[in-house]
Predict the 3D structure of the following.
Amino acid sequence: DAGVIQSPRHEVTEMGQEVTLRCKPISGHDYLFWYRQTMMRGLELLIYFNNNVPIDDSGMPEDRFSAKMPNASFSTLKIQPSEPRDSAVYFCASSFFGTEFYGYTFGSGTRLTVV
Amino acid sequence: QQQVKQSPQSLIVQKGGISIINCAYENTAFDYFPWYQQFPGKGPALLIAIRPDVSEKKEGRFTISFNKSAKQFSLHIMDSQPGDSATYFCAASKWGDDKIIFGKGTRLHILP
């Protein structure tokens, strides 16, 4: 299994531009999580889905952030318009809460820099 | 009540020494305590986990100690190696819940 795949790995954009981050979860995992990591705040849960349905988006910082999961194999996190304070590493994680494994599998992240 | 408090923020240990990272939680309903390890440029990965039916779990050089009455748990890395240098996150949840609560992480550096 290729694991959780995120793209792009790095993104540099100008303030005000739209940014779209992409995630392909592990096949068979029915949960998908979007996290943001910064030195100051650590890992912040932004939103998560179960069976493609958003369950909790209380961590989404502002209306500038939106996330979708149109099918079981793809999710996007969009920031529009982007601001310098959005600079962070964004992780996608997927999970299947079975008896043999209980936890998240993270992707390698997208490092976003907004200048 | 949902927080997991982790300490220290950063830790430097000599090669061969013991690295100890501590975590505390408030929610007495939590009954699953995993640790994640993150190397630079990678996402966190599950390292080891414990359920409170045991007070200790050991996997190789990594040991979780759990104190239910104090609501604390810790990660011990024996014979620490430079390859153990990473950020470590403790976490907690109620088994069956879909959300895991993470601590803020500890940056561990092992001196060669």
Notes: The CA atoms of residues 46 and 60 of chain A lie 5 Å apart. DSSP finds no helices and eleven strands in chain A.
